[in-house]
Design brief:
Alpha-Beta Plaits, five-stranded antiparallel sheet, four-stranded antiparallel sheet
């Protein structure tokens, strides 16, 4: 974690504003490892939430190894977030925040503000004023309508997700010409979109931007004329806490106008897509999920590789180390402490036995004496353990149970929770990291630390340490942890398994 982030999230004002905004919302905490994006969405198989201001700094510290830096939250508030299935229940959504996303660049900030002013002016003309605020998202802005601006009577007639979608669509369509003109002036670097979606998350007030050292400050409409980039400085930001002000029912007339204007087929599209996820009433009776496990050998190899990688950043050597240590501990258990195996035979690979002429050195790696070859890979039993050996003996076995990329991501997040003093001590790593999850890796590690949703899925997310050694599918095609778990349930239901 950077010193900027550490200092920023110690600020009581920052903690309180993030807490105020994220109450009853599903939180996403973003970090970065090796240049790639990492999202933390779950805690102990439950959606990640913030239950007090101090939780903000605690979460940043807890996931510091993953570069935890930016807080997002769902555009919805929920009645309950007690289980991983709660966000999928449309009936559990209590409210949805309308927002218009102004995607731009820091260099075009003045045009971004101009776009925000156009939207704010349109909303004011349609009777929505007190409930409007603008959040500077880092390189662009969001114009938001507080979710409390819609009356209970309106919410009894329409789903909050539908209301938010049609209002955002109506605003974008109504201002199409003006916004296109601003986009042309920005050289195409400015785009205003309706991004309302069942799983959409957006930036929390006073969060840091994921890359830039700028603060996501909130403005009320009368702040726009005086705004400049000094307002988003981490050292002396200017933020209007009145973002939480609203007038119930203020946006009802706008919503009703939007429903009569936007094509009905278009308004039903989002709900149809969301409904496929299923509500509580629509779900089939659950059967017990088939027991799936990962062997101890593979768990050891995976966690040792994650340990080495987090401390060194070298993926190939981490794979070699992971397999090497898995072999060592397997043989040590079988033959007794201190036994050095000489006849380990992994599944056939192109790796050849080391010749006597091969340079082999005994070195200490993370507190353990290990032989290393001239290629930089680790050796045991006169065999060099290569990344290919790891893939055949660890990765392929895990792939028989679950997608390796999810196991790898979960392992990195789990291992990153422990301090260096544990990771550099072989005994403590064995007892405190490996031993506690060796027979329950999926339940205790994958379910808690596996991948979640993102704010937006970029066309190309750079490969990162967390995404390394995974399938070659582009990031947008990779399946998330919750997808894999739900598929496992569905397959169990279809097979009628009672295990």
């Amino acid at each position: 974690m950077s010193s900027v982030a550490s200092r920023h999230y110690k600020n009581p004002q920052v903690q309180n504003e993030i807490y105020r905004f994220t109450r009853n919302r599903w939180v996403a905490l973003e970090g970065a490892v090796g240049g790639g994006r990492v999202f933390i969405r779950y805690h102990e198989d439950r959606p990640l939430t913030i239950n007090s201001p101090v939780d903000v700094e605690k979460l940043v510290n807890k996931y510091s190894r993953l570069g935890a830096r930016t807080f997002y939250a769902t555009i919805h508030t929920y009645r309950s977030l007690a289980s991983s299935e709660d966000p999928d229940d449309l009936g559990n959504i209590a409210s949805t925040t309308v927002f218009l996303d102004i995607d731009s660049s820091l260099e075009k900030w003045e045009l971004t503000i101009s776009a925000a002013e156009e939207i704010v002016s349109f909303l004011e003309k349609n009777g929505v004023d007190k409930s409007v605020y603008v959040l500077w998202s880092g390189e662009g802005a969001h114009v938001r309508i507080h979710e409390g601006a819609f009356s209970r009577e309106l919410l009894s007639r329409y789903h909050p997700l539908d209301i938010a979608f049609v209002v955002a669509e109506f605003v974008v369509n109504s201002l199409k010409d003006k916004l296109e003109s601003l986009s042309e002036r920005a050289g195409g670097e400015l785009r205003v979109e309706n991004l309302i979606d069942i799983k959409r998350v957006f930036t929390a007030p006073l969060s840091l931007h994921r890359r830039r050292d700028v603060v996501a400050v909130c403005l009320k409409p009368n702040d726009l004329a005086s705004f400049d980039l000094t307002w988003v400085s981490t050292d002396n930001f200017r933020h209007n806490p009145a973002w939480s002000n609203y007038e119930e029912g203020e946006a009802d007339e706008l919503a009703l106008k939007a429903f009569t204007t936007i094509n009905k087929a278009k308004t039903s599209m989002l709900l149809a897509r969301a409904t496929r996820i299923g509500t509580v009433e629509e779900r089939r009776p659950k059967t017990k999920r088939p027991a799936v496990t990962i062997g101890r050998f593979q768990v050891m190899g995976l966690l040792q590789a994650a340990r080495h990688y987090l401390l060194t950043g070298d993926l190939d050597k981490a794979k070699s180390f992971g397999l090497n240590r898995a072999i060592f501990y397997a043989w040590a258990k079988h033959y007794g402490k201190g036994y050095v195996p000489r006849s380990y035979r992994p599944e056939p690979t192109s790796t050849q036995a080391l010749t006597q002429e091969t340079d082999r050195r005994l070195v200490e790696v993370l507190g353990e004496p290990v032989y290393v070859s001239s290629n930089g890979y680790y050796i045991i039993g006169d065999k060099e353990q290569t990344p290919g050996d790891f893939d055949k003996n660890i990765k392929s076995k895990i792939e028989g149970v679950m997608p390796f990329e999810l196991a790898w991501e979960a392992a990195l997040k789990y291992v990153s929770m422990f301090p260096d003093t544990v990771l550099r001590d072989p005994r403590r790593f064995y007892e405190e990291v490996y031993e506690k999850v060796r027979d329950s890796f999926i339940e205790k590690v994958v379910r808690e630390f596996g991948g979640g949703e993102q704010e937006k899925t970029p066309a190309n997310i750079p490969e990162s340490r967390v995404r390394a050694a995974t399938s070659e599918k582009p990031p947008g095609e990779r399946k998330t942890l919750m997808y894999w778990l739900s598929r496992s349930e569905e397959e169990g239901e279809r097979s009628g398994s009672k295990d």
